Amino acid sequence: MYLYVYDAFVQDRRYEKELQKVENRLTDLGIAGKIVRLGLFRRADEFIRDEVRRGGITTVVAVGNDATVRQIIDVVADTKIVLGIIPLGPENRIANLLGLPEGEAACDILSARIVEAIDAGVVNNKRFVCGVSIPAAKSEITCEGNYRVTPQGRGTIEVRNLFAPDEKEKGPISNPLDGRLEAVIQIATAGGGFSFWKSVRGESIIPLRSLEVRTQEPVTALMDGVPVEGTRFDFSVEEKILKVITGKSRVF
Amino acid sequence: MFNKDQEAGKNGGTIIAQGVKVEGDFVSDGNVVIEGEVSGSVKTSGFLEVGEAAKIKASVSAGEALVAGEVLGNLTVSGKLDLLETSRVEGDIEASILSVAPGAKINGQITMNGKRSVEPAV
C-alpha cells in the first residue's frame, strides 16, 4: 500500500486544483492510498513509523518539496521502505535530480516504479540526499583518516552525494550509486571572488568515503538547504540505503 | 597541455587544485590531477597528472604519469612516464616507458626494466 505524506504547505488553496488532479490520476493508475496531512504539531516520522508498524505500507510518497523529503528520509531509510516524491511548489532539487516531473506528471513515474537504491550522505549523524555546503572559513579537512587537506585561505567546501550542474552551479555530476561523497573545495581569491567559477583549476574535487571538516570559527552550513551550525562536521556515506522511485531523466 | 583535469573530476577522479595543500598518505584508485602542494606520499593505480604549478614533496607511485611541475621524492610509474620541459624531479625514477622533453630537470637514478643508470641533470 502507498502512504502519501502531504506537507502542510500543499494544503494551501493555491495547490487545491493540482492536488485534485494528482489524486484523480493516482486513482486512475490504481495506486491511490492512505493520506497523511502534516501540520504544525504533527511529526511525519512518528506517524510513518506507526503506520509501518501496523504493516502493509510498501511505499511512502512525499507530496511537497525538498523539505518534505527531509522530514521522512530517516524513517524510510531505517524501515527500508521505498520513497516516492510528487513534487509541488518551489525548492524541488531532489525530485529534479531523480528525474521526477512536477505535480500530476509524477504520478505516471510512480506507477512505472523504477526503484534505485541510492547512497545517503551522513553529517553529524543526520542523513542528506544532495549535499552539504559549508561557507567560506579557515578550515581543515581530514580525509578517510589518512591525509589532511588545507585550503590556503578561506575556502568554501561542498560535500556532495547527488549533484548535477545547472545554470547556477557548475561541476561534475555526483553519482549517488558510487558509494562515495565528493568534497569540492573552492578557494577565495585575493580579489574577493571565488577562483572556482573563473577557472576550473581553482576547484579541488576529492571522492571520499569519510571526511571530517573543522572550521576555526562557528559557521552555518546548509544540509540539503537546512541550516546546521557548528565547527565540526563529520561525514560518512551509507551505501544504497535509500530506495527511491526515479524517472528516466534522472541525472545518474 | 593539461586538459584532463575536468575529465578527472567527471570520471570520479581527484583534483587537487592550486591553493590547496595535502599532507599525509594520499591514496586513490582513479585518475589524479595535482596542481597544488602535496607532502607525504601519493599512490594511485590510475593516471597521475602533475601540473606546472604543483609542488610535490613525496614519494609518488602511479599507473601512468605526466609531470610538468616539481617532484621532490622518488617517482615510480608502472607504465609510461612523461616528463615535460617544465618538470623537475629530485629523486629516483622507475618507469617502463620514459619520455623526457628538452629542458626537463632530473637529479636521480633512472631504472627501466630493472636496469639502473645514473642520469645527470638535463
Number of helices of chain A: 6
CATH architecture assignment of the largest domain in chain A: Sandwich
> What characterizes the major β-sheet of chain A?
10 strands, antiparallel
* Overall tally of structural domains of chain B: 1
CATH fold field value of the largest domain in chain A: Tumour Suppressor Smad4
Pfam families (chain A): DAGK_cat
InterPro entries (chain A): ATP-NAD_kinase_N (IPR017438), Diacylglycerol_kinase_cat_dom (IPR001206), NAD/diacylglycerol_kinase_sf (IPR016064)
GO molecular function (chain A): kinase activity
Protein name (chain A): DAGKc domain-containing protein
What do you see in this structure?
The complex is a heterodimer of chains A (about 250) and B (about 120). By secondary structure, chain A is an alpha+beta fold. Chain A has 2 domains: about 1-110, 3-Layer(aba) Sandwich (Rossmann fold); about 125-240, Tumour Suppressor Smad4, CATH 2.60.200.40. Chain A has helices at about 15-30, 45-55, 65-80, 95, 105-110, 195-200; strands spanning about 1-5, 35, 60-65, 80-85, 115-125, 125-130, 130-135, 140-145, 145-150, 155-160, 180-185, 205-210, 210-225, 225-245. In chain A, the strands form 2 sheets. In chain A, strands 5, 6, 7, 8, 9, 10, 11, 12, 13 and 14 form a 10-stranded antiparallel β-sheet that branches. A 4-stranded parallel β-sheet of chain A has the order 2-1-3-4, with helices on both faces. Chain A is elongated and about 60 Å long. The relative contact order of chain A is 0.17. Residues about 190-200 of chain A have low confidence and may be disordered. Chain B is mainly beta. Chain B has one domain (about 5-120). Chain B has one helix at about 5-10; strands at about 15, 20-30, 30-35, 35-45, 45-50, 55-60, 65, 70, 75-85, 90, 95-100, 105-110, 115-120. In chain B, strands 6-8-10-12-11-9 form a 6-stranded parallel beta barrel. Chain B is globular, with a radius of gyration of 13 Å. At the A-B interface, β9 and β12 of A face α1, β1 and β2 of B.
